[in-house]
Amino acid sequence: MKKVSRLNFWLKSAQAGALAIAVCFTLGATEPASRFNTLSHKLMCTCSCAQMLGECNHVGCPNSTEELALLRTGVDSNQSDKQIFDSFVAQYGATVLAAPTKEGFDLVAWIAPFAVFAAALLGTVLLIRHWVSTRPRLEPAAASPEMDALRERIRRETEADGGYPV
Amino acid sequence: MATFGSFALLIALALAAYNLLAGGVALRLLATGQPAPITPERLADTARRAGIACFFAVTAAAFALIYSVFTNDFSITYILEHSNRALPGAYKFSAMWSGQEGSLLLWAWLLATYGFVLRLTHKMDVKLYAYAGTILAAVQVFFLAILNFAAPPFALFRGEIPPDGNGLNPLLQYPEMVIHPPMLYLGYVGFCVPFCFALGALMMRYPGEKWIKITRGWTMVTWLFLTCGIFLGMHWAYAVLGWGGYWGWDPVENASFMPWLTGTAFLHSVMMQEKKGMMKSWNVWLIFATFLLTMLGTLLTRAGLVSSVHAFAQSSIGTWFYVFMLIVLGTCIFTYVLQRSHLKSDAHVESLVSRESSFLFNNLVLLVACFVILWGTLFPILSEYVQGSKVTVSAPFYNAVAIPIGLFLLFLTGVGPLLPWRAASLRAIKRNFIVPVIAFWATAIVVLVAGDRPWHDGAFDSGQFYALVAWSVSAAVFAAILSEFLRGGAVIRKQTGSNLFASMVLLTRRNTRRYGGYLIHIGVVIIVIGLAGAAFNRSQEQELGLHDRLAIGPYTLDCVGFSDDSNSNYDSQFALLDVYKGGKKQFQMSPEKRTYLASQQPQTMVAIHSTLEWDLYVVYEGVNPSNGHPIIKAFLNPLVSWIWAGVLLIIFGTFIALAPPITPTTAALRVPVARTVPAEPAMHGGQP
Amino acid sequence: MSSTWGMIAGLILAIAAFVYTFWPENSFASQRQKTRLDYLLERKEQLYENLRDLNFEYRAGKYPEEDYAAQRAVLESEAAQLLSEIDYLQQA
Prior knowledge:
The complex is a heterotrimer of chains A (166), B (688) and C (92). Chain A is an all-alpha fold and 166 residues long. Chain A has helices at 2-26, 35-40, 64-76, 81-92, 106-134, 145-158. Among the domains of chain A are: 35-96; 100-135. Chain A contains six helices and no strands. Chain B has helices at residues 2-32, 40-70, 77-82, 89-94, 100-120, 126-150, 176-190, 192-203, 210-241, 251-276, 280-302, 317-339, 355-387, 395-418, 426-450, 462-496, 500-510, 512-532, 640-658, 664-670, 672-676; strands at 455-456, 459-460, 538-543, 549-552, 555-566, 570-581, 584-589, 592-596, 602-605, 607-610, 614-623, 630-638. In chain B, helix 7 runs antiparallel to helix 9 and helix 17 crosses helix 18 (512-532). Chain B is globular. The longest helix of chain B is centred in the C-terminal third of the chain and has 35 residues, at 462-496. Chain B folds into four domains: 1-164; 174-343 and 352-397, no CATH class; 398-535 and 646-672, no CATH class; 537-642. The longest helix of chain C is centred in the C-terminal third of the chain and has 27 residues, at 65-91. Chain C has 92 residues and is mainly α. Chains A and B meet through helix 1, helix 5 and helix 6 of A and helix 13, helix 14, helix 15, strand 1 and strand 11 of B.
């Protein structure tokens, strides 16, 4: 009886939690999305400062002004992300994209980390399971007067206050 | 001074070579028991002494370089290229690591210093230290050979000597840059010592696990230096580069992060070896890998392999590093194959749900993180090789891939300590997990109510989603660690009758390593909380004429003046901004832009006002040429100060973990009477 | 500093290093081989640590009774074997 009511309590709390989260997720946000800003953080400044386009701030940067203008045109004329990126690649080469694309060989860049993670995770789980199944069973030593005396000594030296004088 | 410096480097090389040769021969004689005209132990001692003398020789060379910087000896090419007369004193030290040759000398000097300490403390375990010292000498020979033959810091300038030098890179002219590089180098170089111990212990088939205790201490110190170095670098990037962030996933930042990850993995898995005699091969390879990664990091910076703001000029020493790394790897593999029978585990993991397996997973995640970063750093090279064109792998890639892995690691930080050793029964798990789970959900709800919106305007905002997860997991981990302290403290309180806080202090002193480690974990949690704040960064850019205003968050910036200034080292332009909050003037800020005269390079001096809640971060972007008005960019970066606070806690925690604990033996020495009274009959162990 | 003086200073450094390295001294530390007993004592200390840890965590409420008893029994029998070997070696 007690067990059931406790289970109920946890179920109810979980439900309440899930509900609260669902509500929060569906509430509309107020700030307008800044597509320009988002995209400027997916492109690089090509002046060799190795910074994101949206973050390049050095005085008189020869490239970022022009790049930002190109991006502004793209966003204002409602081009898709892909169209904008394509126009950047056409003008500045593939290195203008801050991350590899998800096509062709570039896709490998994205898959490899997760593949390695999954493989390593699986490998570890299998290894542990193998160890668990093959471990030798350690039986407590048979009771004998000497063993009892030794055990007594061990307990005296490690137990009660953990061996620390109080 | 140039002659003396070159001479000192040559002597140092000779001494290191003698150390390696004599040490090697002596150890060989001792191991085989062959008769020899000299006592092998005496020979080994001369080798050790040569190592100590080598430290003084390298110190003399380093002194010669510093002396030449301070006396403006521009006949030395290195000084000419990296310093100038107007450079302030403190930054003259920085000249030592602003270039290839100088930083290699710094590296060699730090290595010699570590070697010096190691060889002085050899009585801890004479044989093991003899092996470690000899291996260290081999690494020293490599660096000193480069300094003597490939990148001589004392090379003389040919032709007429100019009256003044080219000056120091302005990016380095910042107080933290006087400490950050040496700190990072201390961390980098330091990993050489655990490497030498591990390889040495393996070569000599060290009986037992004591070597790993010695190694662990060295690793912890090194790890602390590396941690401080990395975070100083982050703080420097934040305060100087002026883009409002602190970590750009630059190849060189990555290079310092990789050995940190494997080093961290080692510090965890080493506990398994000490406690249970498990994971011996794994630990040895973790140390090997860490050392090789520090070498790879050096290679990345110096061989022009990847493009980076940090990279030194391309040079020929890349080949030296390739060869050296191959030799190191070869030696590691050879020794391992030869001695692997020595590394058989005494025990195995007994359950999938146990402290042991949580350590395994922790190691796994740290290594995967390391792989991801290595992969991202080297992918451009791979891509060029495979498809003939370079690609950029930058922040968006790492954020997408590394953040989930990092969060999983954070989750394990909380779970690990709650799991008992060997095996956990379902009952034990339930009992230990209730509080953290409640903390997780409570925080998630609070964060969502407070306005975190992982889903808004019909789009998924990964930044805010990760922030939500990061904060919730952080709360759970914090609750888990706190409950560890409280539960342990309660047991001690029962024994001693002192108050809970005093009990927790005593608890920490009895097991400095574990509770110091927990403090470090809390530090990490605080850092994660701060990092997650970046999802809510805001910025605003505006041209400000006199008394124009810029509003950001609760602050309003009022421009009360802008002007130019000049001194012998740089010209500067700056703005004076009064900051208002709630209609009242709070403080004044003065962002600045400098142009250094010697190098003609510009430099931002960011104005930062830091609070627990957020940083107001103001950058002088430039000037509108038509009217001379400054363009100001203001950022409001939430929770950044938490990151720096977390680091302080990590440092504190590491010191605690390094402190020797009170053990029953040391405690008995202090209270001799108590020891003679047998502890109470111990059949039942105390109350549950 | 002229190059002659640099040369002289370098020579002094070289001589000093040489003298220090080969200074005839016979009080060098010997490389004692670790005995089986040393090894066993180290192991014993480790097992004791594990036992103390187990006891402490049990009292902190992290183990249910039966888990605790089972694990303690295993560790104790391991320690007992060690102790008897140590006793034997120390008597010998």
